Write a sequence for this structure.
């Protein structure tokens, strides 16, 4: 026996779910590819858009001179990356609202000319369109141009009078991100299209509020840019002390090793026996004592595959270990742990043990929150007073460490490994305590500046939300403590 349709009960059930009931005309409105999925028409997305439209708003396309990207994907077959040249930004270089050039790829001038449509210019909003969709930042006038970008980064050129810093803050806010989350298409690799970006609904406010917000965002970017200077100064200080600044080893066209040396090392690959690493160590030994890394460590152990969970300790994987920075934010997954599990502590040094492009990347862990390493990250924990961990991380990231990474890594193609037993054999040149302390201070300055920049950007995003949900006055009051002061 069937139950009669109860319309009131049906609507009551829907109100408790992330479901929206729309007419066909509403579904068709601004729906170029006629989407009807719950991701696109989720209640959260529709509610957020409705709230924005209670005030003044405009479509992004009305605020921009152009919204462009790389062009034809086939152009990727027309060029190759080079060791040095013009920076070529990818989605991985735009994280949490900031641009990061530390692992950027490079192209030559010919490729840059070919990709003229995707060249980055000052004061563009750069928006990721694939993978981690919706990360936005602004190209600063202080960057060293030319700079180019790949097919998965949209370049939004604002009209005169529209601040790129305001647009980036809005896109990064909850109301921008909700709209970005509803747009991606694709089952494996999520992607959005330029015409989708053009239809984003942007809240507009008074010139006073948007300028105040832009000043905070601009300050965040300028402080973040200073981090790069601190890091470069730390490495240059190290290289000067070790006698490696502007040093190049003699070029050996050929070299030979005895069979006994190969059998003792258990290696037959040419990279292991290349003379440049030994010559570098000899050069450093003139300036200070060189010792095996294992003599300085209490712990040299790789993590294990975590047991992921909704709550627990944050997990650090190779993506989080950057050059002289360990990322600890909303991107980290969590895992359960036992009392005897190996945990990352403040003062540990983390080094990536796998992967082309990430292997050997090292950073001191400067956070107070304990964490867990996954099975691609090795923990190095120095003896108390043996060596400053920040100095050790900078050393391992410089050629002093990276040439040894090249020497000791094993495997080929994409399956390369750097094992703790090999890391233990690295030669470390001990700089005077004063040099180690100077390098530490520079890296700590970068760490503190990075935190300050992140706090300012988050404050700007929150101010956008307060202005939409409450009033400009309330948002300005909230923003007041973050506004840059003038002398």
């Amino acid at each position: 026996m069937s139950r009669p349709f109860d319309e009131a009960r049906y609507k009551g059930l829907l109100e408790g779910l992330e479901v929206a009931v729309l007419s066909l005309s509403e579904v068709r409105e601004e729906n170029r590819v006629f989407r009807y999925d719950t991701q696109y028409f989720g209640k959260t997305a529709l509610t957020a858009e409705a709230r924005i439209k209670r005030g003044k708003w405009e479509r992004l396309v009305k605020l921009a001179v152009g919204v462009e990207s790389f062009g034809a994907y086939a152009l990727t077959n027309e060029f190759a990356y080079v060791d040095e040249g013009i920076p070529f930004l990818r989605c991985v270089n735009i994280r949490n609202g900031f641009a990061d050039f530390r692992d950027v790829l490079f192209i030559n001038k010919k490729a840059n000319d070919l990709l003229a449509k995707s060249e980055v210019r000052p004061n563009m909003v750069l928006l990721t369109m694939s993978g981690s969709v919706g990360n936005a930042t602004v190209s600063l006038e202080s960057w060293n141009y030319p700079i180019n970008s790949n097919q998965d980064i949209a370049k939004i050129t604002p009209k005169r009078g529209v601040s790129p810093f305001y647009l980036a803050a809005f896109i990064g806010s909850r109301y921008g991100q909700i709209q970005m989350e509803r747009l991606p298409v694709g089952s494996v690799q999520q992607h959005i299209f330029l015409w989708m970006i053009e239809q984003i609904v942007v809240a507009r406010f008074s010139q006073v509020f948007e300028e105040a917000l832009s000043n905070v965002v601009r300050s965040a970017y300028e402080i973040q840019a200073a981090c790069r200077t601190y890091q470069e100064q730390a490495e240059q200080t190290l290289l000067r002390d070790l006698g490696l600044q502007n040093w190049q080893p003699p070029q050996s066209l050929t070299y030979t090793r005895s069979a006994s040396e190969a059998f003792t090392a258990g290696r037959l690959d040419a990279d292991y026996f290349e003379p440049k690493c030994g010559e570098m160590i000899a050069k450093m030994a003139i300036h200070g004592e060189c010792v095996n890394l294992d003599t300085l460590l209490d712990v040299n152990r790789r993590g294990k595959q975590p047991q992921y969970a909704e709550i627990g300790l944050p997990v650090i994987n190779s993506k989080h270990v950057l050059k002289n920075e360990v990322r600890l934010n909303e991107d980290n997954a969590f895992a359960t742990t036992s009392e005897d599990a190996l945990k990352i502590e403040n003062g540990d040094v983390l080094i990536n043990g796998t992967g082309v492009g990430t292997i050997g990347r090292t950073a001191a862990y400067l956070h107070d929150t304990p964490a867990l390493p996954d099975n691609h990250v090795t923990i190095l924990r120095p003896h108390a007073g043996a060596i400053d961990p920040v100095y050790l991380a900078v050393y391992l990231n410089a050629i002093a460490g990276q040439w040894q990474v090249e020497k000791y890594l094993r495997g080929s193609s994409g399956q390369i490994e750097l094992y703790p037993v090999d890391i233990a054999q690295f030669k470390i040149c001990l700089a005077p305590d004063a040099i180690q302390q100077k390098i530490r201070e520079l890296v700590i300055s970068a760490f503190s500046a990075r935190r300050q920049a992140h706090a300012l950007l988050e404050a700007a995003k929150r101010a956008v939300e307060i202005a939409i949900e409450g009033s400009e006055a309330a948002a300005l009051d909230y923003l007041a403590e973050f506004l840059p002061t003038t002398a």
The first helix runs from residue 7 to 15. Residues 58-204 form a domain with the Adenine-n6-DNA-methyltransferase TaqI; Chain A, domain 2 fold (CATH 3.90.220.20). The chain is about 35% helix and 15% strand.
